[in-house]
Amino acid sequence: MNGQIKLKLGTLLNDSSIVIQCHDTPDADAIASGFALYDYFSSLGKSVRLIYSGKNTIDKPNLLLMISALNIPIEQAEHAHVDGLLITVDCQFGAGNVSRLREDAENVVIIDHHRQEIFDIPRCEVHPKLGSCATLVWAMLREESTYSIPQDVQTALYYGLFTDTNSLAEIGHPSDKDMLESLAPDLSLINRMKNANITLADMETAGLALLRTSHNAVFNYSVTAVKPCDPNILGFVSDLAIQVDAVSSCVVFNIINQGIKFSVRSCVQDVMANEMAAFIAADVGSGGGHVSKAGGFIAESALRLQEPTLSAEAFLLKRVHQYFTDFDIINSRSHNIDTAAMSKYQKKPVTLGYVPSLALAESGSEIRVRTLEGDLDILASDNVYIMIGIQGEVYPIERSVFEASYDTTDAAITLIAEYIPRVYLSASEQNFEILERAAGCVAQSHVSVLATPTEKPTKVFTKWHDAGYFAGQPGDYLVLKESDPSDVYLVRSDIFNQLYEAC
Fold it and tell me: What pTM does this model have?
């Protein structure tokens, strides 16, 4: 998120009494997020309560262990009336999954990582692309220079992300990864909680789910419904389903408060689980993770606006089938693109960023660049430069191609990004923002490309990225370098219009 936090915790100190409310029947992420905020405000001498409501008490063994071992002062408050400041965490005041403990919305703050559904509360920090609310709270705490996160809170935050992303398998946002890099949790306790996570009833739920699977033999995918259960059971069932010889990708889901939680697995190169999850949740939720393991959430309110009559299972079957039937697939090494139908463009004089890989690490060393699209692994070499696009996109470029295509400049780099890419060096255990060592460059006027807007969702296997592909939506631009027909890539429509103009 790198500076994208609008609501500062330090501005919430005017009230002497603060109540932090988790959603009804809270999970580990809600408890962890609430506990971290509780500790922060308590450290400043505020009178703080951490509560949840609803008829069901916390009874899952891993949560009871978490509360006991970390001394989390959470209490059930079924009919409480809240005065002072009310902060709803991992939920949104007025939504259906959190009991309303006051009539008015005055002096209410929302901190959440689900799709926003309440819009009339001004003090609201919602980031639906994050894997957990714990990540958001960690980012907010990190900006408070007077507060140092104690280990019990670090352990709670780690476990909140751990459980909300299926044991970290479905992490997608770089801020989630940044938090993991920074925390020093009690791993012994994490292991104990992890092994107290599945009950005998959960095992039965998993077994019954596998008996009710929809399978498509043409594209080798399956969709499986699971009855309401702990979200980790979805990952457990997914990991079983993907081992079936007739299944190369699968989606497992259940219906939870206010929507659908789903898990995605893939074991083939032409289906990246994180991209498939994002496709499934497009316009109705959020999805992401790793190339082989991912997940997401679909908001019930958004689903009803799009598909008022479809059941959850029917909607997922429709989206998954669209995913397999709607995409054009292009391999940069063996394409037959009709260049006669493409138009000629040249790059605008926009200042981009670049950095020689040897300015980051010694030759032969591994460099990991963390971006919003995922981690990019590069071996440092005199022949490899790294380009930084205007929205934080990062890609390698050969030194000779760079020198033939760009001029260096002292002008400021144009960057409008949700997340500033970070460099992680395994050899030295350093990490820093890539802009710290980047310089500016501008495309030379003679450099031209052929491009055309796509009509369908498109996957492009580029010459630079053997491990996967880049996916685009209709209207994004398919671009081919005139000087190198094997250099084919996709550019989002909003970025293309900022970078290119017709010749």
Answer: 0.80
